[in-house]
UniProtKB/TrEMBL annotation:
The keyword rRNA-binding does not apply. It comes from Thalassotalea insulae. This is DUF5009 domain-containing protein. The chain crosses the membrane at residues 30-51, 71-89, 110-131, 137-157, 164-182, 221-242, 249-269, 281-303, 315-336, 356-374. NCBIfam families: NagX_SO_3504. Keywords: Membrane, Transmembrane, Transmembrane helix.
Amino acid sequence: MTQNTEQNMAPVIEKKRLLSIDALRGFDMFWILGGEKLFAALFMISGWSFFQVAAEQMEHSSWHGFTAYDLIFPLFIFLSGVSLGIGAKPLTSYPADKAQSIVRHGYKRLFLLIFFGVLYNHGWGTGIPMALDEIRYASVLGRIGISWFVAAMLVWYVSVRNQWLVAIVILITYWLLLQFVTLDGLGGGNFSAEGALNVWFDQHLLPGITYRQLPMDPEGLLSNLPSIVNALAGVFTGRFIIKHRTNGGFLISRLCLIAIGLLLLGYAWDLIFPINKSLWTSSFVLVTVGYSMLLLTLFYFLIDVLGSHLWAKCLAVIGMNSIIIYLASSLVNWQYSSQSLFGGLISVLPAGWQQLTLYGGMLLLQWLFLYWLYCRKIFIKV
């Protein structure tokens, strides 16, 4: 590749914010907000096997294994790490009062995400006044908060070399724990939903209730440990982007090679430590980081290198208010709103088109709400 071509591939970007990150976060949230239901409707309309396969990929794996829908959660954690890697510095780089303010904000973010996670789960049991033992404290937002916070503390207080060391030690230690440690007959290489070591931790140390009263919560205590590596991987990726952002060809090729290497390593580890979202196994971490990097590389190339911005801004409208719309997806009945507005049209359409219109309308209403916030520069962040 010639030097001129390399220079043409160098994107003009702001140091602290990349449109590709907001767009990819919006793309990630799109499926949570109801986008996953569109494939089933399209299959009903067309009968094409492609949409059937896509609809199947929009379901979580039953236990071991991996589907596209399993990537949504770890991708969000990865992207939180990317933003951290782009913007954060060791606290020694700041004046003392600024460093204290940053740390206070980190704790605030952690506790707010844990609280919002309980709110999202409707986890207060039978209602107010709350029964503390009926609350589900574990949550998606709680895990995002924990993984981001630990990664932030490492960025603020620990050298880059030791951050890499921590990530490697976490993955290996977690595997050794689940493979060889036994507590009350649980663990010792048992990776089932009833017999994994995670069950012991959730039954003995996790306050409140588990998801659907299962023996192990999918966002339980022990599996928070490897999710930290998803955030750290995002940190390393963000730093790599900033370091090589003026050399687009090198950056994109290296990110792709690293991602493919992680995928190969993750699928190889799957042979002895199965890829499993609920257990958040080390092999699951490597595979999800690999796919996350490939997606980010694709979005970065299309948006920040080639300058394809229109569709990206449509997704960024979602990504820039991701927390508020995630909460709203639990607290607001968007399907009822869509049915109320478009019910007359829906009722006269064939079955497949009814589903497509219902869920398409639901997505449209959520996007319009976010666009209203976007136009007024209202960005609700934690």
